[in-house]
Amino acid sequence: MSGQGTVGSGYVVTFGVINPNGTPRTGLVAGDFTVRVENPQNTFSTAPAVSEVGGGQYRFTLPGAFTTTHGAGEYGWSVELTNPPVDLISNWVTFFLRDPDDLETETSAAARAVTNQAEHDQTQADVALVETEAAAAAREVTNTAEHAQTQLDIANLNDPDVAAIADGVWDEARAGHVAAGSFGEALDARVSLVETEAAAAAREITNTAEHDQTQTDIANLNDLDAAEVAAAVIVALTVQGYTAARALLLDNLDAAISTRAVPGDLMGLVAGAITAAKIAADAFTASQFDASMQSYQAKVWNFDDDLAGTPTDRYGVAFFKNGNFITAGIGAPSIRVLRNVDGVDLIPTIALVAVPGFPGLFFFEETSGPRRMVDGRSYFAVVTATIDAATRTWPQQIGRDNTP
Fold first, then answer.
1. Number of other CB atoms surrounding residue 178 within 10 Å
2. 328-381 pLDDT, tens per residue?
3. How far is Cα 356 from Cα 363, in angstroms, rounded to an integer?
């Protein structure tokens, strides 16, 4: 049995339990023990709980109140095993106080062990680096031989003269000195432009032959008189279809155009003939435009009705063709509302409802909180309808101000 502690912090008492066959008994819990600690005067008694340390070793702790009240001294204590009942220990023990500064903590001991191991490993590494006497002697011999050879090499050196340097430069291959941006690259580019002797000789032969042929061609030329030139021109024009008969027509082309009469309907276009009165509303009907020239529009209105009994977002939609309000021929009108910032639907595509008694006007009302617009945010209303046998879509930006 052993115990230690400090005044105010308590004592820790450890003990072991051995089976009849001499092996440690493990796996016991606090309920398997009865522990009593008392002083000789029998003025107090306490029963601390037992816990297993491991390997058949157990311990109990006397709390700080015990050491504060009673301090160091002699106390009686007993430990009984309740299952089966066995009186394990009954003894008197003197608890003694130690300065806590003298006790090394488990953490400190572990840290010191790590440090000791690291220092030991470093020492072994340092020892391994120490050169043996034989190796040092061999290195000294090698150093001496290398020093002697170095001195001999220095003595055999000759300072190169200017001629030797020049020979070295001119005899050096260009391939190793033509890096980008270097003087060698520029010099190599110039040298590469120089024509070889064989190429120059071949070009000279070609030039001579071409010169001789040119002189022959010039000698064979004959001066043409005016009649010969005219005849050659006539032949060329005839080949192109310009005959004498057509020449007369070409000469009179300007006169024929200038005397051509202007169509009467064009003569009716005079300044000021088109007035505002003649461009009245619906002067041009939709049927007078080609299908590719038709223009279709949709207009969306939205209202934030927070003061209604049930707060509601109200949407209104009207459709137009060539700027005119459409009251018929609008198929499957629908609306979809999505958020600007991420394109996620606020309201998925849903059918619009016709306004009773007013053809061409449609509406939709949203009362669900998650599908209502948030103050200060921007949205796109995308309206779709089938008009003139084609499905048409119009986006329009909507939103509402921040609530003051």
1. 15
2. 999 999 999 999 999 999 999 999 999 999 999 999 999 998 999 988 889 999
3. 10
Secondary structure of the chain in the HEC alphabet? CEEEEECCCEEEEEEECECCCCCECCCCCHHHEEEEEECCCCCCEECCCEEEEECCEEEEEECHHHHHHHCCEEEEEEEEEECCEEEEEEEEEEECECCHHHCCCHHHHHHHHHHHHHHHHHHHHHHHHCCCHHHHHHHHHHHHHHHHHHHHHHHHCCCCCHHHHHHHHHHCCHHHHCCCCCHHHHHHHHHHCCCCHHHHHHHHHHHHHHHHHHHHHHHCCCCCCHHHHHHHHHHHHHHCCCCHHHHHHHHCHHHHHHCCCCCHHHHCCCCCCCCHHHCCCCCCCHHHCCHHHCCEEEEEEEEEECCCCCCEEEEEEEEEECCEECCCCEEEEEEEEEECCCCCEEEEEEECEECCCCCCEEEEEECCHHHCCCCCCEEEEEEEEEECCEEEEEEEEEECCCCC
Between the alpha carbon of residue 227 and those of residues 242, 248, 274, 402, the distances in Å are: 19, 21, 62, 95
What pLDDT does 96 receive?
A: 44
* pTM (predicted TM-score): 0.33
Alpha-carbon gap, residue 334 to 349, rounded angstroms: 6
Question: What is the CB-side half-sphere exposure of residue 21 using CA atoms within 13 A?
Answer: 2
Strands ordered across the beta sheet of 390-399: 345-351, 330-339, 378-387, 390-399
| The pair of three-digit structure tokens given for residue 31, joined into one six-digit string | 């309920």
CA–CA separation, 169 and 269 (whole Å): 91
CA distance 83 to 31: 9
Q: Is 282 exposed, middle or buried (0-12, 13-18, 19+ CB in 10 A)?
A: exposed
Cβ atoms of 371 and 365 closer than 8 Å: no
Could you tell me the end-to-end alpha-carbon distance of the chain, in angstroms, rounded to an integer?
A: 80
| CB neighbour class for 335 (10 Å; exposed up to 12, middle 13-18, buried from 19) | buried
Write down the pLDDT at residue 49.
85
> Are the CB atoms for 325 and 297 separated by under 8 Å?
no
Intervals of the chain under pLDDT 50: 1-8, 92-102
Q: How many other C-beta atoms lie within 10 A of the C-beta of residue 187? A: 13
